[in-house]
Amino acid sequence: MSALWHFGGRLLVLVFAIGLCGTGADAALVKEQPLVLTYHNGPLLSTKPIDVHVIWYGKFSPVQRSIVVDYLQSLGAKLQGKDKQPSVSTWWKTIEKYKGAASNGAALSIARLGKQKMDESYSLGKLLKRKDIVALVESAVKSRALPPPPSHTNAVYLVLTSDDVAVERFCVSSCGYHDHILGSSLPYAWVGNPVSQCPGQCAWPFHQPLYGPQTPPLLSPNADVGIDGMIINIASVLAGAVTNPFNTGYFQGNAGAPLEAVSACPGMYGKGAYPGFPGEVLVDRTTGASYNAHGVNGRQFLLPAMWDPATKSCRTLV
């Protein structure tokens, strides 16, 4: 299982580094470890289009759902025109550089929006354990509200919880995570809306950070701090779920707490990023909102850096 902190996948490391900068400590005392995600010879998700099936748990407005849906539909959309670049699909194409074993095919393929299930009645309450996330996925598949996984896995089941739902270890050790259901090899992921629980941790850089330099937050591209924070975390867990679905794919470190495609590049959104500063990103001339990727329906998104297997470095869109 892989969990992520949005404000730096390695929060404690970042806080330590920020502390060193603030005290004028000699940077030579801190030796950066080489960033290499090793392939552990396990299966990646299929080379076929990867369906992302969504479970909406709790209250989401139609506008909030449309932002997320537009992001997921943007993953495989080829936008025309220089004014539409860089795009969400450009960001996702880095995933294609993660090669699986010969039996698992060549490069990975596009991701796309699958089926959706609404659970506005809080069927399991507003205080969820992680086992409840599994139960929601299993119930949706068993009832055929969402399609069962094909024999060759090419789907991720994404549970999204509204801002009034507390999930075990949310805001304590993660902003979202992905895992797989044992026995069925079914990959799933969860991300919560942090706007009322921990925006300084899971909606940065659209909110003042809980730790580190208190630089002014960026304006969110879709005028919703919680949802735009969720987009960043959804991007992170989906990239991890595709490149390391069963804890045997691409990662660095311990398989139980791995650094993956995006979590290995914490807090980076544009050139010149450093702990507490997201980097130089694009700014909409009309709204003043910050973004680095265009999507369908005129949407703009801010997406995190992804580790590029070709260059063995973290790659930002701008």
Structure description:
This protein is an alpha/beta fold. The protein has one domain. The protein is 21% helix and 19% strand. It contains 6 helices and 16 strands. It has helices spanning 11-23, 62-74, 88-92, 130-142, 199-202, 225-243, and strands at residues 2-4, 38-39, 50-57, 111-119, 127-128, 155-161, 166-167, 176-181, 186-192, 250-251, 282-283, 290-291, 293-294, 300-301, 306-308, 313-315. It has a 6-stranded mixed beta sheet with strand order 1-8-9-6-3-4, sandwiched between helices. A hairpin with a 4-residue loop joins strand 15 (306-308) and strand 16. The radius of gyration is 18 Å and the shape is globular. The two termini are 30 Å apart.
Number of strands: 16
Q: Which structural class best describes the helix and strand composition?
A: alpha/beta
Compute the number of helices.
6
N-to-C CA distance: 30 Å
Gross geometry: globular
Strand content: 15-25%
Weakly predicted, low-confidence segments:
6-31
Largest sheet: 6 strands, mixed
